[in-house]
Amino acid sequence: MDEAMRVFVKMERNGCEADIVTYAALISGFCKWGKINRAYQILDHMIEKGCMPNQLIYLHIMLAHEKKEELEECMELKGKMQKVGCVPDLSIFNVVIRLACKLGEVNDGIRVWNEMEANGFSPGIDSFLILTHGLLGQGCLVEACEYFKEMVGRGLLYTPQYGILKELLNALLRGEKLEMAKDVWSCIVTKGCELNSDAWTIWIHALFSNGHVKEACSYCLDMMDAGVMPKPETFAKLMRGLRKLYNRQFAVEITEKVRNMAADRQTSFKSYKRRGERDLKEKVKAKKDGRKRRARRRQWGRTRSRASI
């Protein structure tokens, strides 16, 4: 960066005015090296020279502040942008919202969100994901549900976003908020979202894993009524749970529907069933092996610590 600055100073001495691309490169370089003060010096210099910075230049500085978890500085920078007539765009708002949620300043994140909408910006999928994930991280389940359902209502729930769906449903069920979880799922269904086997599997497995076996089976029947066949592992998981509950009625009904769907798809029910049992065993074994490895690493860490002492 020192060499770049020497070239820049030499250009100006020779009467060659720098353009916005040159300024952007310098500011980006200083931000990457963590020299935010130098970036601000260049920013002030370009404004004095009558070269107005754009959103990308401010974004470089904003990201540098985010890396250092400097929320107040991000808020101030957003204000400085507006003073010089550079309106923050969605990427700027997203950085501030993300950092506010990360630092637990959820109210600040929501205020910035409201400001974003007041400025005429329609939140995109990235904005919704950032805020919903941040709210979940701070345990704000009610607010997370509200923003997630708004995202669904705007038709922004697609397969790549199923990660946040899984995170939300499991957080609700772990927090014993079954009715809220059902309400979220009902919102997805009633808003006409296209539900594939992955979405149904996330919902059914979340219910099952959190002790709601009967509800999981009921929604499995709904899934098949919608023409979606459960994955072999899901079928095996439900059958194992029903055996523990001694609930033969559910087991017979689900098995019969799966058998018919397998026949319609010219699939052997026996091979489907064997595959599910095999996948379930492999998953359980992988989970156990993972716990053993983590336990060994913890033990190894304690042993090394004692040796150091």
Automatic annotation (TrEMBL):
Superkingdom: Eukaryota
InterPro entries: PPR_rpt, TPR-like_helical_dom_sf
Alphabetically ordered keywords of this record: Repeat
Keyword set includes Transmembrane helix: no
Composition-biased stretches (Basic residues): 284-309
Keyword Repeat among record annotations: yes
Region (Disordered): 273-309
Pfam families attached to this UniProt entry: PPR, PPR_1, PPR_2
Positions with biased composition (Basic and acidic residues): 274-283
PPR repeat copies, ranges: 19-53, 89-123, 196-230
Coiled-coil zones: none
Family from the record: Belongs to the PPR family. P subfamily.
Protein name: Pentacotripeptide-repeat region of PRORP domain-containing protein
